[in-house]
Amino acid sequence: MRHHLLIIDPQNDFCDLPPAALPVSGANADLQRLAQLISRHGEQLDGITVTLDSHHRYDIAHPAFWRGPNGESPLHNPISLEDVDSGRWLPADPSLLAEVRAYLQQSSLYVWPPHCLVGSWGHNIQQNLNEALQQWECQRQRVMQLLFKGLNPLTEHFSAFEADVPRADDPATGFDRSQLAPLLAADRVLIGGEALSHCVASSVRSLLRHLGPDFARKLILLEDCSSPVPGFEAQAQDFVAEISRLGARLQRSTTVFD
Fold first, then answer.
1. CATH number at residue 222
2. What is the pLDDT of residues 84-99, one digit of tens each?
3. Radius of gyration from C-alpha coordinates of the chain
4. Parallel, antiparallel or unpaired: strands 47-53 and 188-193
5. 153 and 216, same structural domain?
6. φ, ψ for residue 5, nearest 5 deg
7. Within a 13 Å sphere around the CA of 219, how many CA atoms are in the beta-carbon half?
8. Confidence of residue 223 (pLDDT cuts 50, 70, 90)
9. How distant is the alpha carbon of residue 103 from its chain centre?
10. What residues make up the domain containing 18?
């Protein structure tokens, strides 16, 4: 039986460690447990895919992209089409007004603190997990698959596999089935990472939307290796219930290979 491990956004900025930009309670321990799983059962893992949230400081979901009437920037703010049309929030680059309006007609938007900036400490994989991944590559004499998402500053990218609003001028923002060959070849896909309520949920929903609901029967959510954003526990519970109804299983990392 072939096992593939899918790790969503296991990065410092999501760990409950200083100076993380968007700490998720329990995330550091989640990723330590993933590291232990890889160290103990690396021979049984035929492949590993790691997705990396990857942003510029200037990004549609970061403060620098927006300006208020007095030159202020939003933070932890939803922005709606009504906000833009009223002038409450406008793109700092006025030439993007029409594009922003079109975006907000298709998707909601929330402005987060700048996080997972490429080249920064926050973009790096959590240390214990990174060490385990490097050891696995040497042990199995193969490389993990790294998927970068979020580099286009004009669209939000919660899912690892497609942007919230894919752009016709950037294929990297659309769903690319060719990236999924290792997952499709596996008998079981183990899933962990951050955050359960947001990027994990969005990524799995993308897979099921494009690959079909039967793909859920391959999935094992490592329930001790993923945590929700504080305040979004209900959304995480809804996601877990949703995939469970489709046949996905929940297991702890300490028992998945028993």
1. 3.40.50.850
2. 999 999 999 999 999 9
3. 19
4. unpaired
5. yes
6. -105, 120
7. 28
8. very high
9. 20
10. 3-56+115-251
